[in-house]
Amino acid sequence: MTLYHGSNVQVDEIDLSKCRPYKDFGRGFYLTDIREQAMQMARRIARLYGGSPQVSAFSFDVSAFSSGDVRTLTFDKPGKDWALFVLNNRDKRFSDIGDTLCNQDNKYDIVSGPVANDDIAYLLRLFANRLIDIDALVSGLEYKSLTAQYSFHTERALKYLRCAEE
Question: What is the pLDDT of residue 36?
């Protein structure tokens, strides 16, 4: 499977120490299977930090999900567990790091699931600010059509990624 990473620089070698914390699935290297989505992210990053939009392609060995070699977590669609996982990973004050719905400690090597886009982020903020309850949040997520993201959190996970030519 080909995955794409959008940035303001070409990525030939992945350095997990350069990845920012408090992202949807925790600190990690994020990719998508949609090239245009990666290009949109690249444009956004280049606007914020300078440089020019770059999309790097990687070949992903999907046997990672069944190998037993790495700990994986997959969310097929947005729901309660996905929302709590995203909220817990984004929250700098979240302290129950051992919780299975948190990856701030990289307990999962690879996580895949929906992107929390701006529309979803609004619902998550309403819930985090206690303006809606979990049932209203889940109801609001029910009919959302979201794109997928794949995040790689450990060196063990990176063994399943290789730079690819486009």
Answer: 95
- Taking 50 as the pLDDT cut, the residues of the chain under it are none
For 125-138, give one letter per residue: b (16+ CB within 10 A) or e: eebeeeebeeeebb
pLDDT of residue 102: 96
Query: Can you give the pLDDT at residue 119?
Result: 80
The DSSP H or E segment spanning 146 is none
The residue type found at 146 is L
CA 156 to chain centre: 17
Q: Which long-range contacts (CB under 8 A, 24 or more apart) does 37-40 make?
A: 37/4, 37/6, 37/115, 37/147, 38/4, 38/5, 38/6, 39/4, 39/6, 40/6
The model carries a pTM of 0.92
Looking up tokens 């794409």 gives 4
Letter for the amino acid at 22? Y
